[in-house]
Design brief:
The complex is a heterodimer of chains A (about 375) and B (about 575). Chain A is built from 9 helices and 20 strands. Chain A is of the alpha+beta class and about 375 residues long. In chain A, the strands form 4 sheets. Chain A has a 6-stranded mixed β-sheet, with helices on both faces. In chain A, strands 13-12-11-14-20 form a 5-stranded antiparallel β-sheet. In chain B, the strands form 2 sheets. Chain B has a two-stranded antiparallel sheet. In chain B, strands 3-4 form a two-stranded antiparallel ribbon. Classes of the chains: A alpha+beta (about 375), B mainly alpha (about 575).
């Protein structure tokens, strides 16, 4: 997967051992007692060495199954998984040069921190001196050097998370796999670990595949995001692409807050913009390649693309609810286009429910998608 | 956010995670387990069925249903009464333990369990001494002309023997009930009596039913007590014994054993697949409140009355065993003597050592098989595993009489496969190891089920991600099992060994057909002494055996503590 603007992190630190991963038409179907459920459907993507790629989607979208197929815990029903050009499908999970960080951390409760981290090195029969050196380096890297003799249950969630990360890093894998590793942490710690994991990954330059259902995690950490829904890939792209230029209405709705207004396309322009007829106004904004003149379209308006005014604007309406959230105020406004969600960063005093206001649009933050097929 | 489109897929995405092409190691383990199950259950049961379906066997079955209906009828009656009494008492003991507060609760718990760890004749013999025709209490104290032999004595003795099973079962369920349920009921204005009948009882109904069924099967299959206490009261189990021991008619015995086997298997299936599913108890792990003791005298007085009476009975009987071992003839000649223990030391020492070494061999082997089965069931074969689970549990579903007879039929002669002799004769005096191998086999078969249950429960608690982490770090299947899985389920393995050892040391019904003069087992020695009317010797034997079981329990419990302490240290 090659986003149009590849991140500097991805190219600068590509270590020689970082692996290139390729998934070709990977499909996984589970046979249940009466039906066949397709968990992953025709997943095709290429991950460059050193890239940090996130599989993002709601629960049950197939992201974890995809990760587990890469790790080798599941076998694809069909398709091919290649690491540096070599097929991995018939390689058992313990022979794949990949390490996984689990949602539950999965530390061995009967082993202390040092033994947990050196477990994989012992399996590989790495000489003792080197083992000690590498374990110490890994612990240093994640900042847990002082906990050598502690047992997992004596550590906090964040510390356990670091041990799990060190245990994976010490193996010097070609691919690092993360299965929702932050979901068991509280909000503050999650943000800190997010930044740390990203920094460590960037320094080590290891190709990483990260699974999450949290869009802000995906946006802040990734070079590339793969948005999945119902087993299929909805879109592959850099964070700003999937946010600003979503390929489907699902992607638009899953990342951030969006309003959707149905419209008629009057003209498509050569600079990838289109003009649409909305109730009461004509609007020209960037559009998806599939938008065609004379067809229906869905206009996506991000909640932060709307500015409230005292009367004039693209559309007028009545405030129904207003919720002050510190940095922003969240409004719901009833308009001729239907109810709009508006996040206002304005420092003006919150507008009262019932007051009549105008909504002004920042046209470059509006995105025109092809209309839903009837 | 519109996620309604995504939410719909949730229902389809709950498949069991399957592993990649299985490691040869897994197939190796499966092969060991399958061979063991065939050897321990398959072969004996199929030989028994074959023998039962011969003309002689069929004739015995027909006779049991037509001309000689008494044993069948008696067995059913006995089973029902024992199951009823045992379940009621078991429930009351469990209820008192969980919901009432009174002094000596811990002691009561161990007293309730005592019959489970004592040899089968202990209670019966003590009953005769205390409550028989010339019993200390019935005759000497109260001057009653009361006979214990027959249905009345059997019901009490069997209920006493098997009540611990009901007690454990029901207590576990009562303890798992969410205390907030009772708080909710109270907050809604329910009285304690109302809660007992409308909340507690309905919720433990599955456990009550399961206990009832287990007790029924155990009571119907029990052979030891009818031999001692039956008198003219003939039951199927003792008929089987007499068919072999008296007439040497093995086919007839096998036919009668089949009559026992079918309802036992039926009950087993109902209990395992129906009662388990009916369970309404929510096991959330975290209690949401604390239990408040029940104090309504309308409940506490009747419950404690029954509990006290039952406990008194246990104390009197076990007191009789302890005292009877050191008195000449308890109740007749109460002079203190060391003669009985001297007898045990002189003639019984080989039986003691034989029982011990066979137990020491059988319990770990049984635990190992239990671990392997549990590992296959929980981790390797999520679907086919249910069949394996069923096969392993058969050891508890097949009545002891039936299993023992099956072993005798299967292993008294060498085993042939496709014209090649693969095993020499394993059962009987002239066999290899003088019959010890077959006895150990029975011990192992009987040790597997409880061990398997505890290991499966424990293994299900271990997050599979921990094992996947080991795999992800490069460990093979075998290495993961040894270095990660087994250390995590240590306590369950020790529990399995403990149950296996206890069962082995106290079993008689299952080995009565395969004991040999060369391989003396304590339980059969006790039967000989009881048969000969030398109760003093029997009491001494029983006391020694109970002592040995307690030592084994003590050692394993200490080991268990050590293991769990090291883990939490």
């Amino acid at each position: 997967m090659t986003p149009s603007e590849s991140s500097p992190v991805a190219t600068a630190n590509t270590g020689s051992r970082a692996g290139a991963l390729e998934l070709r038409h990977v499909t996984k179907a589970f046979a249940t007692s009466h039906t066949v459920a397709t968990a992953v459907d025709d997943f095709t993507a290429t991950i460059e060495p050193g890239q940090f790629v996130t599989l993002l989607g709601p629960s049950g979208c197939g992201k974890t199954t995809t990760l587990r197929m890469i790790a080798g815990f599941e076998t694809p029903t069909s398709g091919e998984i290649l690491l540096d050009g070599a097929s991995m499908v018939s390689v058992p999970p313990n022979r794949r040069p990949m390490s996984m960080v689990f949602q539950s951390y999965a530390l061995f409760p009967n082993l202390n921190v040092a033994d947990n981290i050196s477990f994989g090195l012992r399996v590989k029969r790495v000489a003792k001196a080197e083992r000690i050196r590498r374990v110490a380096a890994a612990m240093e890297q994640v900042g847990i050097a002082e906990y050598v003799k502690r047992y997992p249950h004596e550590l906090s969630g964040g510390q356990q998370q670091r041990v799990a990360l060190a245990r994976a890093l010490v193996m010097e894998p070609k691919i690092l796999l993360f299965d929702e590793p932050l979901s068991n942490l509280d909000a503050k710690l999650r943000e800190r670990m997010r930044d740390e994991i990203k920094a460590i990954q960037a320094r080590a330059g290891i190709t990483s595949v990260f699974v999450t259902h949290d869009q802000s995690e995906a946006m802040t950490m990734s070079d590339v995001i793969v948005v999945m829904n119902r087993g299929r890939i909805e879109q592959i792209g850099a964070p700003h692409e999937v946010y600003r230029r979503p390929a489907t209405r699902f992607v638009a709705a899953f990342l951030g807050k969006a309003n959707f207004v149905d419209a008629e396309v009057t003209a498509v322009h050569p600079d990838s913009t289109a003009t649409v007829q909305l109730p009461g106004i004509r609007l020209t904004a960037p559009c998806h390649a599939d938008v065609a003149a004379g067809r229906r379209a869905t206009v996506m308006i991000r909640s932060e693309a709307v500015r409230l005014t005292d009367g004039c604007g693209a559309v007028t309406g009545t405030v129904t609810t207003a919720a002050f959230d510190g940095a922003i105020t969240q409004y719901r406004v009833n308009t001729e286009w239907g109810p709009l969600q508006v996040d206002s960063t304005g420092t003006e005093t919150p507008r009262q429910p019932g007051s009549t206001i105008g909504c002004e649009l920042a046209n470059d933050q509006v995105w025109i998608l092809p209309g839903e097929q009837a | 956010m519109t996620t309604s489109t995504a939410a719909r897929t949730n229902t389809t995405q709950t498949p069991a995670r399957t592993t990649v092409a299985r490691d040869p190691y897994v197939w190796g383990v499966l092969a060991i387990v399958v061979v063991a199950i065939i050897g321990l259950h398959g072969l004996p049961v199929s030989k028994l069925i074959a023998a039962g379906l011969t003309p002689e066997g069929l004739a015995a079955i027909t006779r049991a249903f037509t001309a000689d209906l008494a044993p069948l009828w008696n067995s059913l009656l006995l089973g029902l009464l024992v199951a009823l009494l045992g379940t009621v008492v078991g429930f009351l003991m469990a209820y008192a333990q969980v919901f009432l507060s009174f002094p000596g609760k811990r002691v009561l718990h161990w007293l309730t369990l005592l019959p489970m760890i004592s040899p089968p004749f202990a209670v019966a013999t003590a009953m005769i001494t205390m409550f028989g025709r010339r019993g200390i209490i019935t005759y000497h104290l109260l001057g009653l002309d009361f006979t214990l032999y027959g249905l009345q004595g059997l019901v009490i003795v069997l209920a006493m023997t098997f009540t611990p099973l009901a007690y454990l079962n029901i207590r576990a369920m009562l303890e798992n009930m969410d205390p907030s349920l009772f708080e909710a009921a109270k907050a809604l204005g329910a009285s304690e009596a109302y809660i007992l009948f409308r909340v507690t009882l309905p919720m433990v109904t599955p456990a009550l039913l399961a206990s009832f069924l287990i007790l029924f099967v155990e009571a119907v299959a029990d052979l030891a007590n009818p031999l001692v206490l039956g008198g003219d009261f003939r039951v199927l189990a003792s008929e089987i014994y007499f068919a072999v021991a008296g007439n040497g008619n093995v086919s007839a015995a096998a036919g009668l054993a089949l009559i026992l086997l079918l309802p036992a298997l039926g009950v087993f299936c109902v209990q395992k697949y129906w009662a388990a599913r009916k369970s309404v108890v929510t096991i959330t792990g975290k209690p949401t409140g604390s239990r408040v003791d029940v104090t309504d005298h309308g409940i506490t007085i009747p419950v404690l009355a029954v509990v006290t009476l039952w406990t008194a009975l246990i104390v009197v009987l076990y007191g009789a065993i302890a005292v009877g071992g050191v008195t000449n003839i308890l109740g007749v000649d109460n002079t203190i003597t060391g003669a009985h223990y001297e007898f045990v030391a002189r003639l019984g020492s080989t039986a003691v050592t034989t029982t011990l070494w066979m137990t020491v061999v059988a319990a770990p082997v049984g635990a190992l098989l239990a671990v392997l089965i549990a590992w296959l069931v929980v981790r390797q074969f999520p679907r086919f595993g249910r069949v394996l689970d069923f096969l392993g549990m058969l050891g508890s579903a097949i009545p002891g009489t039936v299993l023992g007879l099956g072993f005798a039929l299967a292993y008294a002669k060498p085993t042939w496969l496709f014209g090649i002799q693969i095993l020499p004769a394993l059962a009987g005096g002239v066999s290899v190891g003088a019959g010890a191998i077959a006895i150990i086999g029975v011990y192992v078969a009987r040790a597997i089920p409880t061990g398997q249950q505890s290991v499966i429960a424990s293994l299900s608690q271990v997050n599979p991600q921990i094992e996947e982490a080991a795999t992800s770090l490069g460990a093979s299947v075998a290495h993961t099992m040894r270095a990660v899985t087994l250390p995590l389920i240590n306590p369950a393995i020790l529990t399995a060994i403990m149950y296996g050892a206890t069962r082995s040391m106290t079993t008689i019904t299952a080995i009565i057909f395969i004991t040999t003069p060369q391989t003396k087992v304590m339980t059969s020695q006790i039967l000989d002494e009881v048969d000969a009317g030398r109760f003093g010797n029997a009491f001494a034997y029983c006391t020694v055996l109970i002592g040995l079981v307690l030592i084994v329990l003590g050692v394993t419990t200490a080991a268990l503590r050590l293991v769990t302490r090291r883990k939490s240290a």
